[in-house]
Design a protein that fits this description.
Blueprint lengths: L2 H58 L6 H80 L1
């Protein structure tokens, strides 16, 4: 094997490392997006629960029945239910995207590890060949000096 092959593997290792880092950064961004979507969904759910509770209290209090308030709370409750559904759908998409980025990051890491193995194997083979060549030269010098 030549040093050129080792050099090619080392260049390939650097390229694989860059891809691995980019995949990790994309995964971190996707994970942050999942957290943001989860917080948004939870906030909308909490608001919807508060409006729903207020609406039940308003209709349960028979002494003062404000129809305008009941209608407003009912409409707001329906709107927040829809908004929560949209937020849940966005969260599901963000989680799916995060899983895809995680798979890409794992694939990039495995590829880099495979290239690392080839670099180690190639450099080990070259080192053994160099060592064997040096030993042959040393033996030839030693035999030449005895003559």
């Amino acid at each position: 094997m030549k040093d050129g092959r080792l050099h090619a593997y080392e260049v390939l290792r650097r390229v694989a490392k860059v891809r691995e880092v980019r995949a990790s950064l994309a995964l971190a961004d996707a994970s942050a997006e999942v957290r943001i979507c989860r917080i948004h969904r939870d906030d909308v759910g909490a608001a919807q629960a508060a409006v729903s509770t207020a609406n039940r209290r308003s209709t349960a209090d028979e002494s003062i029945l404000d129809l305008a308030r009941c209608e407003m709370l009912s409409n707001l409750d329906a709107l927040l239910v829809e908004k929560r559904k949209v937020a849940s759908d966005e969260l599901a998409l963000a989680e799916q995207s995060c899983q895809e980025y995680a798979l890409a990051a794992v694939t990039a890491k495995r590829y880099r590890e495979q290239i690392d193995g080839r670099v180690m194997e190639t450099s080990g083979t070259l080192e053994r060949k160099r060592s064997a060549s040096q030993q042959e030269e040393a033996i030839e010098c030693w035999l030449g000096s005895e003559r």
